[in-house]
Amino acid sequence: MAIALNNTISNIRFRLVSGPLGQFFRWWWLELGNAMPAQLRSRMQYARRRLLMGIKDGELTMSVDDGTVMEVLGSFSVGQDVPLRQQQVRELLQQHELTEVSRDLLLDEVGVLRTEVTMPLAAEANLRQALAYEMDRHTPFKAEDVFYNWRILNRDRDAGSLHLELYVTPGKPVLEHVELLNRLGLAPTGVDVTHQQRPLGINLLPRELRFRIINRRARVNWVIGTVTLLLLVLTMTQSLWLRGRQIEATHTAIDEVRDEALAVQQIRKQIEDVSEAAGFLQTRKSQNGLRVEMLAELSGILPQDTYLDRLSLLDGSVQMQGKSDNAQSLIELINASRFFEGASFRGPTRLDGRSGKEIFDLNANIISSEAG
């Protein structure tokens, strides 16, 4: 059960690291490092130092690697006076602030077998177990007798194959070196291999044998970084919340102003309608008032022996049809009025046989300027 759970966790970790998300974060971290000031990059590089330990001919050589330069700190004979060597090691680590950095046993590449291996791409999720099954096919060793690790060269997704570089070293001599380092108080966190005078960057030591170092400074930095990140997220969340509230308040104010604007527009339209109605009434009143005055004028100037059968007040003219004892005198009477001019018969007058009066059809122009 524990093995299955461990394999599941390893598969998930592997997919996260090797997947698009892991690639993005590696790229992002690299770009972030390049964008940092040189002094800050130097401090971070100093914090990422690791201790490299090489054992050869009974001599322990200790070096520090900051990722670019490997500096030798000192050498000790490991064959005698172990308590003295422990004291010397502690003083050296304290002097160079290396008590809480990772410690790797460095193997000579001569003692490490390197071979290229092709595996099915589907085996990548559980590659360590797959390599253990086929260890004796790719190397002269059995999986239980060696420590091994690999570096992926490329993934051929079209062919469904995985090309990798496998590094294998006998486990017994490495275990002897690990036990010696444990006695000196230098329990290693990993086993690396030299390549062209530099660490290769792999770890051949099985996970269960790796010593776990707790870097208190790094832990404090992680705590501070986590708190800073949480505060940043909180600040951003609060800013977004406040922005949302401001937008909501703005929309509310806009709605209120829009309602007021609509109300003002409605009032303005009502005023315009009332004004138009008032103007219409005033116009009608003016027009009707003028007509009433014209009717009063005609009633006053027409003789008692004249009456009208039809009266039409048109735009700019008036037409009268009726009967009179002396129709010809009507022309002078109407032209003498202050409302009319240019009076004339529209046709000849004729005699009405029943009443004995003259039938007339008269037209006159309205004097609008004087009437206004």
Which SSEs are present, and which pair or pack?
Blueprint: H1 2-18, H2 20-35, H3 38-47, E1 50-56, E2 59-65, E3 70-77, H4 82-95, E4 103-107, E5 113-120, H5 127-133, H6 135-138, E6 146-156, E7 161-170, H7 171-183, E8 190-195, E9 198-199, H8 216-301, E10 307-314, E11 317-324, H9 329-335, E12 340-345, E13 350-351, E14 358-366, H10 368-371
Parallel strand pairs: 1-4, 4-8
Antiparallel strand pairs: 1-2, 2-3, 5-7, 6-7, 8-9, 10-11, 11-14, 12-14, 13-14
CATH architecture of the largest domain: 2-Layer Sandwich
Q: In the CATH scheme, what's the topology name of the largest domain? A: Nucleotidyltransferase, domain 5
Broad shape? rod-shaped
Would you tell me the structural class of the helices and strands?
alpha+beta
Helix content: 40-55%
Distance between the termini: 113 Å
Radius of gyration: 57 Å
Q: Spans of 5+ residues with little confidence (pLDDT < 50)? A: none
Described by strand count, sense and barrel closure, the largest sheet is: 6 strands, mixed
Helix-strand pattern: HHHEEEHEEHHEEHEEHEEHEEEH
Number of helices: 10
Count of separate structural domains: 4
Q: State mean pLDDT (0 to 100 scale).
A: 82
Number of strands: 14
The first-level CATH class of the largest domain is given as Alpha Beta
- The percentage of residues in β strands lies in 25-35%
Could you give the order of strands across the largest sheet?
A: 3-2-1-4-8-9
